[in-house]
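chain below, 339 aa
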Amino acid sequence: MSVYAGLDTSLDAVAICVIAETGEMLWQGKVLGDPDAVTAALQRWRDDLVRVGLEAGATSEWIGGHLVDEGFPVVCLESRHVKAALGAMTVKTDRNDAQGIAQIVRTGWFKAVHLKSAAGQRLRTLTAARKAAVRAVTANEQVIRGLSRPLGLKIGAVTRVRFEARVRQLVGADRLLLGIFEPLLRMHRCLRENLADLHRLVLRAVRVDPICRRLMTMPGIGPVTALTYRATIDDPKRFRRSRSVGAYLGLTPRRYQSGEVDRIGRITKVGDSETRTALFEAANVILRPTTRWSSMKAWAMKIARRKGARRAKVALARRMAVTLHRMWVDEQDFRWSAA
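prediction:
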């Protein structure tokens, strides 16, 4: 007998629903939000399970990865598809969501999401932590700038290293202002040190990773962008064609076609936003006048003259995503004459 299971995961608990191929419910319950507890609950149907479905989320890679290691046929479902499928429910509960997910995997009406490897998850955690540190430093500087502006203290354009010295120069010997800004400046110094520590971890990870070093042979691709791309793609073999990477990262235009209406809009912006942003920044670097000339840059410059710089940067970011995947699969460095 073919059996299907749906899991609705959360931090503390996992709702499970097991159904037969006819849609009949065989068992429904709730267990602790722990991979071992979920494995134990599904053990009795282990030989009959065709699919175990769970929605992509914060704990899906942890629980789903453990179930894959245990030999269960796990599929991770795209969250937008699950939301659309469960939207008709008048009562939303964890139990109902688990039952709905089980029905989705039974019918096959879903889009599977890649479960990252353990190594990929750790690299992703590193890049996300570094990005959070960058945002924390930026937020701290914005607070100091916002507090100093009404006082007529214009910090101006300064580097992150000289920021503290510039603020102290403007504050001078004013004791009250020193008492106000001193804690914020100490926080700024601490945040910069933590960011430097995380950046060193990024550089260390890139240094020992041959894939990242190969990706960095492309102009505009630095250690952070290479590691971000590496962690997002994880397994290049899951894409049959390199062109699919552009759509996966949300760098292809939307399209609405119905009857005589056929509209093409802006890019979809689905997928990982951090990787998409990193590639867009890399495209900016390539289009700078000081960047070495290549066939890829020549291609983007033609688009810029014809359709404008903004569209050229988006098109170049998409082409970079596709080319990086091809370099990874073919194990070849960037070719300046024929990108």
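The chain has a mean pLDDT of 93. DSSP finds 13 helices and eight strands in the chain.
thats it, cya
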